[in-house]
């Protein structure tokens, strides 16, 4: 392979030495001229996301956010935003759900879509034709029109990561370099990482992934919530890891996992499982209210996915109704997406969280003073 990104990365490594994995990742996905997200509409071609599986997903997200808007006093104006809106399907379904609350559409429009890819913006323009939509490169560029009510579905898993390996009691960072055979690949920095003291105690050979980019994103959202109020839902696949995460990187093209993506920069989609622990910590450090992460299946059931699916199925023929139920089950089944994906709820300090999360345990332990 000799694509333009591969040649660019080769020249950089030959001139400067091995580069960090997050720098390679950023270039592969987001390079403005040749990155994966800059040159195609990838969703559906490689990964299929929850909004594409069933309209019920986006409707329930919309209902959860509009309830958060109601619970926070129906502020007007306010901003309904999505970071990484994919094909626009989630926002289209959420907008339809907003119609249940009088005044919600008027207060929350225009919709703010944070999207850096020109090809994705073009697709979203067609998908959302007729809706009041504006696009922004970053959340910071979006106007601060009152409280923010935000959703980000499968955003964090695409943000760049770094990988470290624990050997002989020390942590060493994995970087992307050129092997003896001339191919790009991972190799260890021979110097122990300065990040080591902050990483969990792990057996030798453990691999741990960190993502400063995810924490920066969390702080950016938190700043808006703290300044103006509002709430956010972040949905992604991952967990809160108690020790090392392991190597969770996936590279996919045409629904097939690519085991060696390093000679295919810009040609494959990259994701890794989200460690929600640092993300939660970033929100809490800013003073935000936080709920979860909880499994997606539990969250959607709490919002009423079964009765909503039943109501829609009544107007369909037998085959279409069976397909609708099958799609809803795919979203909640623990063996499929129901447990792998998690939902994190966030609200401005002292403000109500979106519905769908278990109530916090406020009981007094036995023997403790009330």
Task: Give the CATH architecture.
Answer: 3-Layer(aba) Sandwich
Q: Which ranges are low-confidence, i.e. pLDDT below 50, for 5 or more consecutive residues?
A: 361-370
Cα gyration radius (Å): 22 Å
Shape: globular
Q: Approximately what portion of the residues adopt beta-strand conformation?
A: 15-25%
Would you count the extended β strands for me? 16
Judged by helices, strands and strand pairing, the structural class is alpha/beta
Order of helices and strands: HEHHHHEHHEHEEEEEEHEEEEEHEHHHE
Cα(first) to Cα(last) distance is 68 Å
- The CATH class label is Alpha Beta
- Amount of helix: 25-40%
Summarize the structure.
The protein is α/β, with parallel strands linked by helices. It is built from 13 helices and 16 strands. The protein has one domain: Rossmann fold.
Describe this protein with a few key phrases.
370 residues; globular; Rossmann fold; alpha/beta; 36% helix; disordered C terminus; five-stranded antiparallel beta sheet; eight-stranded mixed beta sheet; 23% strand
